[in-house]
C-alpha cells in the first residue's frame, strides 16, 4: 500500500513546495494544440453518432454549435464538459468520456507525436505531455509525481467553470493509457486507476479497457504504475528527429505566458495534489516579489486570496457534483480543519450549503441522470468500487511492467 505524503495542517498561506511551470499561452494552445483538442470534439461527435444521438443537435443544445462546422477553434473545458454531460444523459451512457478517450491515441497527437515517439525514455515522453499542450489540456494539465516505487500520472483541470470533470478525466486517462501502450506495448496495464466521479452502473468497460482496478469517488484522476518504468528506453527512437522537432517554432509556439492569474491558479491546483502553496511560495516560484505578485494580480482585477478561494470553490463544486464523497472527505481534500469550516466557506462562496448545492446539482427524480448508464453491474467484479475518500492511500495490486 502506498502512503501518500500527508497534507500540511496549515492554512493556504503557510506552505511551500516546488513545481515546474510551463509557460503556454492561450494563443499557443490554439495554434499548437487546436487540431489535437478539436480531435476530442470530432471523437465525441463520432461516439454520440454511434450511440444513436444527433451530435450536431447536441452541440447546439450544449451551446457548442460554433464548433459543429470544424472552424470554431479549440473548445474550452466548460464547453466540452457540457457536451459530454448532455451526451451522457441523452444516450444513457455513463462511460461516454471513456469511449471518447479511447479514440485519442499517440498517432492522433499531431506534432507532439514526433517528440513523444523519439524521446529517450518513457519518463521523457511523459514530460512532453506535462509541458506541451495536447488534446485534453485546454484549461487542464498533466503532472507526473513519484512516490517511492510508484509513479502517479495526474490529470487535473484548473480553468474556472470546468464541467463534467469526471467524464473529462476518464477520457484523459484513457488517452494517456493509449499513449503509454503505444510506447511500451499493447499488453501494458497500469497498476491502478483513480477517477474523480461516482461509479456508473456499467463498470465492465473500465475494467476491459484499463485492465486494472478502477477506484471511483476519488479526489484526483490518476494512473498509478511502477516508477521503474519511467527509465524504460523508447524502442526505435530517433534522437535527431527529436532534436529537430524540439527546435521547431511551430511546436514551441509564441512563448507568451498565461495571464498571471492563470499561472497562479494552475500552480495552486497542481500543488493540492500534495500540499497547498502560500502566496510567498508562488511569488518565489515565479521569480517575483510578493508585492509585485499582488500588484500584477490587482492589475488583472483579482488577488491571490481571490484566486485561491476560487480554486477551492471550483474543486468543491466538482467533487460535490461528480462524486459521492462525504462532506468530511471533501473538506479534508481542500485543506479545511473540519467539515464545519468547509460548510461555512462554501456558504460564503455559493450562498447555500454544500448539501443543498449537491442536491440541486443532481437531476430531479424521474429524469435521466447524466452519470447513469444501462444497468449492468457486477458488485464482485475486479473493476468494482472501493471508496478511498481521496488520494490519501492508493492500495496497489499486482506489479505490472
Indicate the structural class.
alpha+beta
Give the uncertain stretches in residue-range form.
1-35, 68-72, 252-256, 365-401
Q: Please write the string of helix (H) and strand (E) elements.
A: EHHHHHHHEEHEHEEHHHHHHHHHE
Number of strands: 7
Count, helices: 18
User: How would you write the strand order of the largest sheet?
Assistant: 2-3-6-4-5
Q: Write down the overall geometry.
A: globular
Strand content is 5-15%
- Mean of residue pLDDT values: 79
Distance between the termini: 18 Å
Fraction of residues in H or I helices: 40-55%
Instruction: Report the radius of gyration as a whole number of Å.
Output: 20 Å
Can you summarize the main beta sheet? 5 strands, mixed
Describe it.
This protein has 401 residues and is α+β, with helices and mostly antiparallel strands. The chain contains 18 helices and seven strands. It has helices at residues 26-32, 34-50, 55-61, 77-91, 96-101, 112-117, 122-131, 165-184, 204-210, 239-246, 249-252, 260-271, 279-285, 290-299, 304-322, 327-333, 339-350, 354-361, and strands at residues 2-3, 140-147, 150-157, 192-194, 214-215, 221-226, 393-394. Strands 2-3-6-4-5 form a five-stranded mixed beta sheet. Strand 4, helix 9 and strand 5 form a beta-alpha-beta unit. The two termini are 18 Å apart. The relative contact order is 0.16. The model is unreliable at 1-35, 68-72, 252-256 and 365-401 (pLDDT under 50).
Amino acid at each position: 500500500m502506498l502512503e501518500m505524503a500527508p497534507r500540511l495542517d496549515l492554512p493556504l498561506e503557510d506552505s511551500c513546495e516546488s513545481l515546474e511551470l510551463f509557460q503556454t499561452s492561450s494563443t499557443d494552445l490554439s495554434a499548437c494544440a487546436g487540431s489535437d483538442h478539436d480531435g476530442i470534439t470530432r471523437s465525441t461527435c463520432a461516439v454520440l453518432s454511434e450511440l444513436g444521438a444527433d451530435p450536431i443537435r447536441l452541440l447546439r443544445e450544449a451551446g457548442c454549435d460554433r464548433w459543429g462546422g470544424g472552424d470554431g477553434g479549440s473548445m474550452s473545458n466548460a464547453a466540452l464538459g457540457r457536451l459530454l454531460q448532455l451526451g451522457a444523459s441523452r444516450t444513457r451512457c455513463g462511460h461516454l468520456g471513456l469511449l471518447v478517450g479511447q479514440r485519442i491515441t499517440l498517432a492522433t497527437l499531431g506534432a507532439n507525436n514526433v517528440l513523444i515517439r523519439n524521446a529517450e525514455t518513457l519518463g521523457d515522453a511523459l514530460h512532453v505531455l506535462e509541458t506541451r499542450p495536447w488534446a485534453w489540456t485546454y484549461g487542464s494539465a498533466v503532472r507526473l509525481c513519484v512516490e517511492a516505487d510508484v509513479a502517479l500520472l495526474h490529470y487535473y483541470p484548473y480553468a474556472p467553470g470546468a464541467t463534467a470533470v469526471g467524464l473529462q478525466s476518464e477520457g484523459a486517462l484513457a488517452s494517456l493509457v493509449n499513449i503509454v501502450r503505444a510506447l511500451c506495448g499493447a499488453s501494458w496495464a497500469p497498476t491502478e486507476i483513480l477517477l474523480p466521479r461516482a461509479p456508473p452502473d456499467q463498470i465492465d468497460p473500465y475494467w476491459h479497457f484499463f485492465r486494472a482496478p478502477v477506484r471511483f469517488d476519488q479526489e484526483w484522476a490518476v494512473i498509478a504504475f511502477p516508477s521503474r518504468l519511467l527509465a524504460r528506453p523508447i524502442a526505435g527512437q530517433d534522437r535527431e528527429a527529436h532534436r529537430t522537432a524540439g527546435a521547431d517554432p511551430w511546436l514551441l509556439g509564441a512563448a507568451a505566458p498565461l495571464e498571471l492569474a492563470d499561472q497562479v491558479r494552475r500552480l495552486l491546483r497542481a500543488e493540492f495534489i500534495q500540499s497547498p502553496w502560500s502566496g510567498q511560495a508562488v511569488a518565489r516560484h515565479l521569480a517575483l516579489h510578493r508585492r509585485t505578485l499582488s500588484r500584477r494580480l490587482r492589475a488583472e482585477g483579482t488577488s491571490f486570496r481571490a484566486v485561491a478561494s476560487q480554486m477551492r470553490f471550483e474543486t468543491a463544486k466538482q467533487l460535490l457534483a461528480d462524486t459521492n464523497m462525504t462532506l468530511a472527505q471533501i473538506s479534508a481534500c481542500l485543506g479545511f480543519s473540519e467539515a464545519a469550516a468547509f460548510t461555512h466557506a462554501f456558504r460564503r462562496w455559493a450562498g447555500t450549503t454544500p448539501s443543498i448545492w449537491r442536491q440541486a446539482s443532481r437531476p430531479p427524480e424521474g429524469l435521466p441522470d447524466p452519470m447513469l448508464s444501462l444497468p449492468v453491474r457486477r458488485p464482485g467484479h475486479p473493476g468494482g468500487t472501493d471508496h478511498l475518500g481521496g488520494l490519501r492511500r492508493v492500495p496497489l495490486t499486482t506489479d505490472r511492467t
